[in-house]
Structures are given as structure tokens and as C-alpha cells.
Design goal:
mainly alpha; two-stranded antiparallel ribbon; 2 strands
């Protein structure tokens, strides 16, 4: 059975300990999605409770960082090259939060598509992610999005 690099998805020759393309050390088994030879993208896992507490302690500054990295992580796992996290935050500021509603909806779509692509149990929460901020529950939105993102963590 062929093996593939968990970092870049390149086929690994028999007996090799390193990927010939990216140099990633190969150990044990490699996770392959069921639809193609693409390896599952991995991101850093973030503890939701810690992120909430840091957002409160820093008066929202960590919340800005959290927004940016969630956006960048979602772009990475979905292979979509939309606005980076910093640009999405800037657009949200410039539009007085209107872009944030669009961002919330798109995050639901990205995570659902990535979940289907890589066999992760992620539902289509686009509408939920859109509605929560309308009722002042943006932090709940962050938690749900991070929970889905953590399914792609190493």
C-alpha cells in the first residue's frame, strides 16, 4: 500500500524515512482522506476556555488575534484564498461590523466544505454563525468556530 506525506501529500517511496519533496520525517502511519491522496491539513489546536479568558483579561485584544488566526486557519484547511485574517478584521472595522456578519456566514461554509472533503464531522452551521452575532453572541460564534477548527488540529 502506498504511503503519503502527512505534510505535503507526496507519495513516499518504500523504505524512506523522509519525504522527498518537503523533507518531513515519516513515522508510522499517515492519515489519508478517503477521496484522494491528499493529506489532511493540520493546524494548531487552541483551548477555547483559555482563549475566552485571555480575551477578557486583555480587554478584547486577544479576541482580535483569535479572530485573525481563526480566519487564517479556515483559509488554510479549506484551500480558499479569501481575505487574510488581518484584512477580514480591517474590513469588519471599516464596515462597522457588517463584514463580520459576512465573515461568520463564510466561516460556516468553509468549515463545512473542509469537513466534507476530509471526512470530519462538521455540520453546515453557516446560518447559525450568521444569527449569533446579531444577538450579541459573537463570543459563542468564536467558540463554535474554534471547536470545528480543532477537529483539524495535530
Amino acid at each position: 500500500m502506498a504511503r503519503f506525506c502527512s505534510n505535503c501529500g507526496t507519495e513516499i517511496p518504500e523504505g524512506s524515512s523522509f519525504c522527498p519533496k518537503c523533507g518531513n520525517q515519516i513515522g508510522g502511519t499517515t492519515i489519508i482522506n478517503n477521496y484522494s491522496n491528499e493529506s489532511i491539513p493540520r493546524i494548531k489546536e487552541r483551548n477555547i476556555l483559555t482563549s475566552i479568558l485571555l480575551s477578557i483579561i486583555t480587554c478584547g485584544i486577544y479576541g482580535i488575534y483569535w479572530f485573525i488566526v481563526m480566519t487564517d486557519d479556515a483559509n488554510f484547511i479549506s484551500d480558499e484564498k479569501n481575505a487574510s485574517g488581518a484584512l477580514a478584521f480591517l474590513f469588519s472595522l471599516l464596515t462597522c461590523g457588517i463584514y463580520f456578519l459576512y465573515w461568520s456566514f463564510k466561516m460556516g461554509e468553509k468549515l463545512y466544505k473542509a469537513g466534507k472533503k476530509y471526512n470530519k464531522p462538521i455540520g453546515d452551521n453557516s446560518i447559525l454563525y450568521l444569527i449569533l452575532p446579531l444577538f450579541g453572541l459573537g463570543i459563542v460564534n468564536y467558540c463554535l468556530i474554534q471547536n470545528d477548527l480543532n477537529k483539524f488540529a495535530e
